Amino acid sequence: MTHTDIHHLTDRYVAVWNEPDAERRRAEVHELWSADAVHVVRPPEEILRTAEGLGFDRLVLQARGHRALEFRVSRAYEEFVAPGAFVFRSRGNADRLRDMVKFGWEMVPREGGAAASAGLEILVLGRDGRIVSDYQFIEG
Q1: Residue partners of 28: CB distance under 8 A and separation at least 6
Q2: If we measure between CA atoms, which residue out of 56, 113, 65, 123 comes closest to residue 87?
Q3: CA-to-CA distance for 54 and 2, rounded, in angstroms?
Q4: What was the pLDDT predicted at 1?
Q5: How far is CA 71 from the centre of its chain?
Q6: pLDDT tens digits, residue range 107-121?
Q7: How far apart are CA 128 and CA 3, in angstroms?
Q8: The model's pTM
Q9: What is the Cα–Cα distance from 75 to 78, expressed in whole angstroms?
């Protein structure tokens, strides 16, 4: 496996969600994730409760491949960052065990203040250092 500086990786990971230039976002998605990578999200509790009320007991959201990942990152950017209200940032707590990297992130008001949302990211890296599996737990 390639040596990967996990702090550089997690900084780049968070930066792509804040990237205003669509072409740079697209290029960064291709550099960070492998072609068949999967991004799996455990939704926030309110979405899980709604799904449970509809008869779904294990709701998981998933995007697979560069095209789906580009769409996922772009939608998050358009909804949360582009309007100017929020930015994403790493909590600076990256850790690695073999091919797995974990770190926390926050969505904070651009002007400062308490986090509006936070989560835990678990990344599984391939031999080339790119992400093959990306598990996101939204904590609030």
Answers
A1: 12, 15, 16, 19
A2: 113
A3: 44
A4: 52
A5: 12
A6: 999 999 999 999 999
A7: 9
A8: 0.88
A9: 5
Examine the pLDDT at 46 and tell me if it is beyond 80. Answer: no
* Phi, psi values for residue 109, rounded to 5°: -60, 135
> Alpha-carbon distance 110 to 95, whole Å?
26
DSSP string, 22-38: HHHHHHHHHHHEEEEEE
Take residue 118 and report the two structure tokens written for it: 């936070």
Report how far apart, in Å, the C-alpha atoms of 77 and of each of 22, 52, 57, 60, 84 are: 10, 28, 29, 21, 10
List pLDDT tens digits, range 49-98: 787 778 877 777 899 999 999 999 999 999 999 999 999 999 999 999 99
Tell me which H or E stretch contains 18: helix 6-18
